[in-house]
Each structure stands twice: as C-alpha cells, then as structure tokens.
Design goal:
heterotrimer, A mainly alpha, B mainly alpha, C alpha+beta, A: mainly alpha, two-stranded antiparallel ribbon, 2 strands, globular, B: mainly alpha, 68% helix
C-alpha cells in the first residue's frame, strides 16, 4: 500500500498548474460553457433570488389591493395573474431551485469530491431552469400572465374557460422546469451514492446531505405526477384530447389527484432540505454534535415515505367517500411525528451545547418558533371536519406561509449568512444580519398571524377585493403593513449581501469552526475543491480529525483519483455506495456548450408548442437530439480504461 | 466535540473488490425510477377513469384485438434475451457477440414498433374521441416513443461497436443502453395486461 | 418575545370574539347550527392543546438557548446528570405527539359521523355553481331563485351541489364547512340552522375573474314564514306588474336582450343562462352580493355591469333612460 492515511500532506491549494487545468475560459464563452458545480450553484442561487424579489414585489402589490375594502389598486384580472405568478414563482422558481442551488454548491464539498457525478447534466439542469423561468416570465411581456392559480384546477384551465395563452405559459412552463428538478435530482442521487470521500459511510454523512438525498428521491417519484397533470391538460388544450372533460368520460378530480400526488410531497421536498440546513447550523452554533443523528436521518426518510400518502387532504371538500377521507386524515396526523422527532433533537442539541446567537442561529431559532406554529396548524387542518371549515380560507393561507415562508425561507436566509462566506470568501455583516432577522421576524408575524383570524372570520382565499361591512378591513390593513415590514427585512439582507462582496471581512477557511468538509478548503474553494481527497473517519471530520488527513494516490489504478494526480487529470474518485471504497476514477468533463444547446433546443420545442408553430418545435427537438448525440458520443473516452491510466500519472511534485 | 481524535479505518482507500457499474449506469437507473413512475401514474389514471365510468371502453369502442398483440408482445419481451447474451459477451471482451446480439434485438424491437404503428392505423377510434381513446393512445404511444428512442440508442451502440470503440473494460454506453432496453420491455409487461387484456375482463 | 406573541394571541382571540358577536363577520366560530357549532367545539379543544404545546415547546427552546449560553462546565458532570438525548427525543417527539394525535383522531371520527349523516325529513335544495352566481332550486316545489337561499329554522337541509362549468365551493361558515361543486359529479352538504337569521356565504374555490364576487345569503326563517315564502313563489304571486311603468318594463324585458338569458316565471322570458329573476324585488343584493339592490344600482347594473363587477358575463344593455326606468320598476316590483 502506497497510501498514507495518517499523514496529512498539505494540499497544493494554489498550485498554479491545477488552477490552470480547472479554470473556465474567461468571459462569455466560459459563462455559457462552464460545468463547475460551484459556479452553477451560485448561478442558481442568484437567479432564484431574482425571482424571489419579483414574487415579493407581486405580494406587496396584492397587499396594497387588499389593504382596504373595495380598493382599486389592481383590477381583478391583474390581481388573479399576480397571485398565480406569486405562487408559481415561489414554488417553481424560488424554493425548489434555490434548494437545488445550495445542493449543487454544497454537496460535492460536503462529501469531499471535486464535482457532481454528471457536471454537464448539472449545467443542463440550470439552463433548463433558467429558460423555463424566462419562458414563464415572458408572459409578462405579452401581457398574458397565467391566471388560473398556481395549482390550475381543471376545468378552469381548460380551453373552454381559459382560451388565452395565459394558461399555456403556466402548463408548458411547469413541464419544462419540472425537467430541471428531475435531472438535478438524478445528479444528486448518483453524486451522493458514488462520489463520497473514502470513509464517509452513510452514517457519517452530514445531515444536509441526507436531506438532499431524501429531497432527490421524493422529487424523482413525485415530479412525474405534476408533469402529467399539467402535461395532459396541455394535451387537452393543444390537441383536443379529453382526459379532464367530464362529458367525454374524463374526470376533473383526476387532475386534482395527479396534482396533489406531487403537490403534497412537494411541501416536504421544500421542507426537508430546509431542516437539513437547520441541522447543520444549530450544531455548529451549539458547539456540539447534533443530538440523535440516526433519529433525525430516520425521520427524514420516514417523512419522505409518508408524504406520498397524504395528498387527499387537499381534497377534503371534493365530496370523496368519508372512509377514504378518514384514512388520509389519519396519515396526515401521523406525518407530524417525524417532524416532532427533529424538533426535539434540535432542542436537545442546544440544551446541552453552548449556544452562540449569530445571525444564522437567529434565523434557525426564528425557524423553530415559526415552524412550531405552522406545524400545529398543520395538525389542525388534518382534522377533517375542521378542514372543511378552514380549507381555502385565509387560515390556510396563514398556515402554509408559516410552513413555506417561515420554515423554508427563514432557513434559506440562515443558509445565506452561514454559507455565503464560504462561497464568496467574505463575511456578511452581523449587525445588518441581526437587524434583518428581527425586522423579518416581526414583519412575518404581523403579516401572517392575523390571517388565521381572517380565516375564522370567513374570508376566502384568492379574492381580489372584499366588502366594507364584513369586519375584515382592520386585520387586512395590519397584514399589509406587516408585509411591507417583512419586505424591508429581506431588502436589508439583500443590501448586506451586495455590500459584503466589497466590504465584507475576509472569511478564512472556517469562520464558524464548523464540522463538515466544506470548511476544510479555502473560501471560496478552488475550482477543483480539494487537491487531495480528504479521508473521513468521523461524522464531524473537522472537529474530530485535526489535522484532517488527505489521501495520496496509490499504485492501483483505481485510486489515482484520490490524490493530487486526480486533480491534475481532472478526475475524481468513484467510491462504492455503502463502504466508500475506491472503485475507479471519473473524468470531470471540460467546459462545453452542449448543455446550453440542448436546453435551448427544448426551449424552442416549448415555444413552438406555445405559439403552435410546428416548425419551431421540430427544429428545437432536432437541435436537442443532435446535441445529445454529440454529448453521448464521447462516453467511453470519459472512462479511460484502467491500462491507459497507468501510463499517464503526472505527479504534481515532479511538475 | 469529543476529545479523542477519530482515526481513519486502515484500508479505507483500498480499491473495492466488488463488480461496479459506471456512474452513467447509475444515472440511467435513477432515470428509470422516475420514468417508471410516469407509467405507474398513467396506468393509475387509466384505471381511475375506468372505475368512474359505466362502460369500458367508452362510447362503444371494441376491446383491443389480441391476435397480433400477443405474438408481437412476445417478440418485444424476447428482444431482451439477445441483450443478455450480448452483455455477457462484452463482459468477456467479445465485441462480436455484442454486435450480433444488439442487431438481433434491434430487428425484434423494430418489428414491435412497426406492429404498434400498424395497430394505431387500424383502430376505429381516435385520440380525441373520448377519455378511453386519449388514455389508450397516450400510454401505448408513450411506450412506442420509448421503443423508438431505445432503437436510436441501439443504433448508436452498434455504430460504436463497428467503429471498434468498445473493448473489455470500455463499454459504458452499451451498458446504459442494455439497462434502458430492459426497462422498455418491463414497462410493456405492465402496459400490455392493463390496456390489452384487462378490458376483456368485465 | 413570548410575551409579545402571547399578547398577539390574546388580541387575536379578542378580535375573533368581537367579530363573532358583533354580527359583522360571518365567523365560523359563531355557529348557528349544530354542524358549525360542533366544529367550533373541535377548534376550542385544539386551541387549548395547541396553546399548551406551543408554550411548552417554545419554553424548551428558550430554556435550551439560555442553558446553552452558560459557560461550559469544566468536567462533563452536567452531561451525565441530564437525561439522555434519546429519552428526550422519544418523549417529546413520539410519545407526546402520539397521545395528542390519538385524541384528535377520535374527535375527527366522531365529528365526521355526526356532521355528515343523512337525517329524516330533510328539505332538499339543489344549488348549481355558476360563473359567478348561485342557481338555487327547490326540487320538491320547483321554485327557483338565485344567490339568496331561504331555509326553515330547525329543519335539516340537504343541499345538492353541482356545476356545469368550473369548480366552485359552497361555504356558509356560520352553518357548516364547505363542499365543492364539481362538474360531472353531485355532492351533498347537510346543515341545519337553529336560529333565524341571515348568514353570509362565499365561493371558496377560485373560479375565475370574479371569484371575489360570488357570495350568497342563507336566510333562515321560522318554518311558518318559510312556508309562506315558498308558497308565494310557487303560486306565482307578485309576478303581475303593479304599475303602468312596470307593465311597460315587462314589455321591454321580454322584447329586449334581457329575456335572452333570464327567466321571469309566467312570462315569455324563460332562458336559464343568467339567474332566475322571478323574485328579484325581494332580494337584498345585485350581482351575487356585489352591490345593494336599489333602483339606482340596478339601473347602473343593467347599463354597465362591468363598472360594478368587472369581468361579469352579463353584457351591457343599450336601453333608453325611460326603458331602464321601466325595467327597473318592473324588476323591483317582483316580490
């Protein structure tokens, strides 16, 4: 064995050769052709926040309209378009992809590898997301924004009742962006199973990696349902089929089953990675390992399974048989238990630790307090007779904003403060961060708490105005003021973020003294992440393994990817899924335009379908097929055979 | 934070002795999971619509004919056998077996696709007629599209084999194709009984 | 922070009770029938449980932070004394929730059984969700009206809900939970009003541009009054114009576009695209509770419905001022 496992060779972090080998081409060519997971991850995050602030602006306009009874800030058509696009943006263009963006950036670093398993596919999923977002937002340019609600129930979104292009932007856009989620999830799963650093067995993975694994599996199994729901509806609209036409044997409830079979797991698809972030932040700032690691990992997996059995609780008012509804009501109650486990694990972690109230930790605690309420109201709406009263009322609006805004957006903001120093090398201001947190926390509760009461007072969802004599005016005014405060809070973080790029204090490798591998490399990490792959012997490598040992390559061909030679050859080691022993080396492809071209081809397809121009659609498919053939043609070269490798190693030291 | 430093297990970087698949194969395996879900959901939708209607097929459409469907189904399922044979061959480095097996499988798959198109042409109802027609054409058509894509992959594999790009340790794209083709056959194992046989049971 | 939240909760409860007792808001906690009252009972039970859970768990969080902020002890003494993490997670994350959830499951099943059971002597009412109004028929007598549903106090009502267009949802918070109207299927909602009164309801499923203006009233009257109301409709009383102007209005109504969509019993106007107007004069509202039913609002509604309810399917009608006055007089006289 020529592998040294106990001596940490200092990684040649600034080795100019390596940098030259891994660096993208400068300027625009590099921008369109990069396959670096870190650049792609950052791009995801920036793009998502662009959409986030758009969605927030739409929310503020809606709150302007609802601040007073019978107001005329927005007309009904525009209001309906804005609430639809607000929901579509937050679900499809912010929450889901921003979590994928963090995953893109962090997973390879946390599991100690040099890139994703399929770097080009990774670029592809970003381009699809971006073009899908542009596709949906181009509806603003032609003034035909989707207006059927983000959930778009048939027959309201059928050709009969919504003849315009509005719904096509929505339906085709969801199919398009769903592709990005699916491809991204495939990439996450294979990356997590096949590229973990030696020694990082499943029970040593950071909890965030666990959460992204569950995220990905849930996406794999649920996204087909929403793709089919909206896709079959588009077939009805574009080609005149009759899946959802009752008069021709179709069923409108079928649409709801399909939509919510994805829609409920989706809530957990968003929530699970958010809890994964929390499970990284709380232990770091409690200065002790997460309590009940196996409990929490088990809870995540359990949530993943159970979440596929609760979708009907979105349909309690549709007149289903009571026995069926009682079953789903019961399952919806049971799904609270895994969340309870996580909750008490976090409390136990803080209880026995030494808590430091940094900004990320404040966001984590804010998350706990908000999610606790959102979880409790979640139990309430699982209670069938109560749900009959409050479903589609403002109570539900309050509930899901406590969950999707409070329990997903707060962790994401915490993650910005926690990981942005790693990503940019600059600290965000703690002073502004804490201010932002308090403004957001107060604004959040002023905005969403009164909505519970409005629900009790009989205010239904999705109304663009309400009458004077109903007693809803005061609370609505309060909600609108709160939303402005909340918006201000998020703007402070935006400012802090921009400001830090120039004025932030240098972060150093490990500003928080955290435990996971991303903190072992520089901030920002070099393009190759690790010159040598770290060897893991603990759940908390940076706490328990000081100094952190790195692998050097051995005599055996399969292990050359481990050491600096791997970095020289743009390779990363592939390890066995369970015991993480090296199996071979994966070549990290060079920059290429192909992912962008394939995504562009698909965009042509969807535009062609939208404007019913068969030529455009066929040309798009043709472009995509040619690019895919080109892409796959080189597969064998990417996997150089073992005997070729033995000739090639270029030692860094020798160079 | 424990005081004792964790020590790397000796031999943690010793190569795994188990036979391993390339990452591309794993990617295809996960893609198949999501694709399988597409068909599961479509079949569930089919039975959902069927359960909600008094007659099935709807609107007096006759039940699917089996005289050709059964033999060609067996042709499709059988097309996995030459693939198994080819796979065992290339594992030992026999590219010739790969070429023959894959070509044979192509003929079988293509004849099935031809049958499907013939059948579509022969049917007396359309995609738009009612929900039965919509589900029937969509499910069978989507499967046929998968067969078509599989045949395209088949051609790429054959071309690579003829160009001599495969050898004993180097056939990742072929392996990915093998997996995909088996999946296409397995899907038909679910679609055929559901769409062709079950309407005969009343 | 907990104190502020406590105050917010208290303020919220105050608002609920004010809203309920003031009679302004159609509050679901202000139940006027056994169905709504049972559910508000369920709510108060859940509220107490939720408050206890929130206070206890939030207490754990704050104590956890406070404890966690003390300087770490030199030896691991406190670690040993404290309960094991696993025990804590077990008790808090599994045992406690299971007990609470079991209680809720029993409550759920009991309430569902009680609320949705068919009863003897039900009055049947058929309601069809339209864009954006409610078509109401009493199948046993054939009486038809729109948006304002009269029911007798104390008698169980079986409302059959259907739709021939998009999905709507029928919700009268003070009487019962909501049930959707879905094309291709018929749903049933059972409710009873135990006190006379006017209860406001809303469409609760987003149904297009004017979803916000698709409200309804349930007017619960003593059985005697209800029977009188029904008999009056059934007998066709009040349909004869009472003045010359109204008689002229009837002519205009049947001659012009009005009759293309609306019905007034006993006349040639018998179309069913728009609401049945046979008892229009007795209704409190126009346009599914969009504006009060006054002659001036009605005149505006006829000439320019878009200005009142943008997106409504009712087209503007080009009538002279005199014709409008006549039609208004006619319609307001239909009582």
């Amino acid at each position: 064995m020529a592998i040294t496992e106990d001596l940490p060779p200092p990684p040649p972090a600034t080795e100019p050769e390596l940098l030259e080998l891994w660096e993208d081409a400068p300027g625009i060519p590099g921008f369109f052709s990069t396959v670096d997971h870190k650049r792609i991850g950052m791009r995801y995050i920036y793009t998502c926040f662009f959409f986030f602030f758009f969605a927030g602006a739409m929310a503020l306009f809606m709150r302007g309209q609802l601040a007073r009874p019978n107001a005329h800030v927005l007309g009904p058509q525009l209001y309906n378009e804005l609430f639809t696009m607000h929901g579509v943006t937050m679900i499809f263009l912010f929450n889901t992809p921003v979590l994928a963006g963090f995953g893109n950036y962090l997973i390879p670093l946390q599991i100690g590898t040099r890139d994703m398993a399929f770097p080009r596919l990774n670029a592809f999923s970003y381009w699809v997301f971006l073009l899908g977002g542009i596709f949906m937002y181009s509806s603003f340019l032609v003034g035909k924004m989707p207006d059927g609600g983000w959930f778009g129930y048939t027959p309201l979104v059928s050709k009969t009742f919504s003849p315009g292009l509005n719904i096509d932007f929505w339906g085709l856009g969801i199919v398009f962006t769903g592709l990005s989620t699916t491809v991204g999830s495939i990439n996450f799963i294979v990356t997590i199973f096949k590229l973990r650093a030696p020694g990082m067995t499943l029970n040593r993975m950071p909890m965030y990696v666990w959460s992204m694994l569950v995220f990905s599996f849930m996406a794999i199994f649920s996204v087909p349902a929403v793709t089919l729901a909206t896709g079959l509806n588009e077939l009805d609209r574009l080609f005149g089929t009759s899946f959802f036409v009752p008069a021709l044997g179709g069923s409108v409830l079928l649409y709801q089953h399909l939509f919510w079979f994805w829609g409920h797991p989706e809530v957990y698809i968003l929530f699970v990675p958010a809890t994964g972030m929390i499970s990284q932040i709380i232990p770091t700032f409690s200065r002790r390992p997460l309590s009940g690691y196996l409990w929490v990992a088990g809870a995540l997996v359990t949530v993943g399974f159970i979440s596929f059995g609760v979708w009907v609780h979105h349909m309690f008012a549709t007149g289903l048989p009571p026995v069926a509804m009682a079953f789903f009501s019961g399952v919806s109650l049971i799904i609270t238990i895994p969340s309870g486990i996580q909750f008490f694990a976090w409390i136990a972690t803080m209880w026995k630790g030494k808590v430091e109230l940094t900004t990320p930790m404040l966001f984590a605690i804010g998350f706990l307090l908000i999610f606790l309420l959102g979880g409790i109201t979640g139990v309430m709406v699982a209670v069938l007779p109560f749900d009959w009263q409050v479903t589609d009322s403002y109570f539900v609006v309050a509930h899901f904003h406590y969950v999707l805004n409070g329990a997903v957006v707060f962790p994401i903001f915490g993650a910005i403060y926690y990981w942005m120093p790693k990503m940019t090398g600059r600290m965000l201001s703690e002073k502004l961060g804490k201010l932002s947190f308090w403004v957001m926390f107060v604004g959040f509760n002023i905005t969403f708490f009164p909505m519970h009461i409005l629900g009790f007072l009989g205010m239904p969802r999705r109304i663009y105005t309400y009458d004077n004599g109903l007693g809803w005016g005061g609370l609505n005014a309060m909600v609108s003021i709160g939303s402005a405060i909340f918006g201000l809070g998020t703007a402070i973080t935006l400012w802090n973020w921009i400001r830090s790029r120039r004025h932030g204090a240098p972060a150093g490798d490990d500003p928080w003294q955290a435990d996971s591998l991303e903190w072992s490399t520089t901030s920002p990490p070099p393009h190759y992440n690790f010159a040598s792959i770290p060897l893991v012997a603990s759940r908390h490598p940076l706490w328990d393994q000081r100094p952190l040992p790195f692998a050097t390559s051995g005599d055996e061909a399969d292990t050359t990817g481990l050491g600096a030679e791997g970095a020289v050859q743009r390779e990363t080691p592939v390890t066995s899924g369970i015991d993480t022993r090296p199996e071979g080396n994966l070549e990290i492809p060079h920059e290429t335009y192909l992912p962008f071209v394939v995504a562009l081809g698909l965009a042509f397809l969807f535009v062609g379908l939208l404007v019913k121009a068969a030529v455009v659609a066929v040309a798009g498919v043709g472009l995509a097929v040619v690019a895919v053939l080109w892409w796959t043609w080189r597969t064998e070269e990417d996997l150089a055979p073992p005997d070729h490798q033995a000739e090639a190693p270029v030692s860094v030291d020798a160079g | 934070m424990t005081a004792t430093a964790a020590v790397v297990t000796p031999g943690a970087t010793r190569p795994s002795t188990r036979r391993s698949y390339p990452t591309a194969w794993w990617g295809m395996a996960v893609l198949i999971m999501t694709e399988a879900m597409v068909f599961v959901i479509l079949l569930a939708a089919y039975f959902f619509l069927r359960a909600a209607s008094k007659e099935w097929p709807l609107g007096g459409i006759e039940v699917p004919k089996l005289a050709l469907a059964i033999p060609f189904s067996f042709v499709l399922w059988g097309s996995s056998l030459p693939i198994f044979w080819a796979e065992a061959g290339i594992r030992k480095g026999r590219v010739r077996r790969l070429k023959i097996g894959v070509a044979l499988s192509f003929v079988m798959g293509a004849s099935f696709l031809a049958y499907t198109l013939y059948d579509f042409n022969d049917l007396h109802f359309g995609w738009r007629d009612n929900a039965y027609g919509s589900t029937f054409y969509t499910i069978v058509g989507l499967h046929a599209l998968h067969v078509f894509i599989g045949l395209g992959m088949n051609l790429v594999v054959q071309l690579k084999a003829w160009l001599g790009r495969y050898d004993r340790g180097r056939y990742a794209s072929a392996e990915v194709f093998f997996l995909y083709w088996h999946f296409v056959d397995v899907v038909w194992l679910a679609v055929f009984p559901a769409l062709f046989l079950s309407p005969h049971i009343r | 922070m907990s104190r502020r939240r406590g105050r917010a909760v208290a303020a919220g409860l105050l608002l609920i009770s004010v809203g309920g007792c003031g009679g302004h808001s159609p509050s679901l906690l202000d139940g006027h029938g056994p169905e709504a009252r049972r559910v508000s009972g369920v709510w108060w039970l859940m509220f107490v449980l939720a408050a206890v859970v929130y206070v206890v768990v939030a207490g754990f969080i704050f104590v956890g932070i406070r404890r966690g902020r003390r300087p770490a002890p030199e030896d691991g003494a406190s670690e040993k004394k404290a309960p094991k993490d696993d025990t804590f997670i077990w008790l808090g994350g599994i045992v406690a929730p299971v007990i609470i959830l079991a209680v809720l499951a029993v409550v759920t099943i009991n309430t569902v059984e009680a609320v949705r059971k068919p009863q003897n002597g039900e009055l049947r009412i058929a309601v069809v969700g339209k864009r954006w109004w409610w078509d109401v028929t009493y199948p046993d007598s054939g009486v038809r009206t729109a948006n304002e549903i009269h029911i007798p106090v104390g008698r169980p009502i079986d409302i059959e809900l259907t739709s021939d267009n998009v999905i709507h949802s029928f919700w009268v918070p003070q009487l019962a939970g909501k049930v959707d109207t879905i094309p291709g299927q018929s749903n049933h909602l059972r409710l009873t009003a135990t006190e006379a009164g006017t209860y406001r309801g809303e469409c609760a499923e987003y149904c297009g541009i004017e979803h916000a203006h698709m409200s309804l009233l349930v007017i619960a009257e003593p059985p005697v009054d209800f029977d009188r109301w029904l008999a009056r409709r059934d007998g066709g009383a009040g349909l004869t114009p009472t003045s010359d102007q109204a008689a002229n209005g009837q002519l205009v109504f049947t001659r012009e576009a009005c009759a293309g969509c609306h019905t007034v019993r006993g006349t040639q106007a018998s179309a069913t695209i728009g609401p049945d107007l046979s008892d229009f004069g007795s209704r409190q509202w126009i346009g599914s509770l969009t504006v009060a039913n006054t002659p001036s609002n009605l005149a505006r509604w006829i000439t320019d419905p878009e200005s009142i309810k943008p997106g409504t399917l009712m087209p503007p009608t080009a009538l002279s001022a005199a014709e409008i006055a006549a039609v208004t007089a006619y319609l307001e006289g239909l009582k």
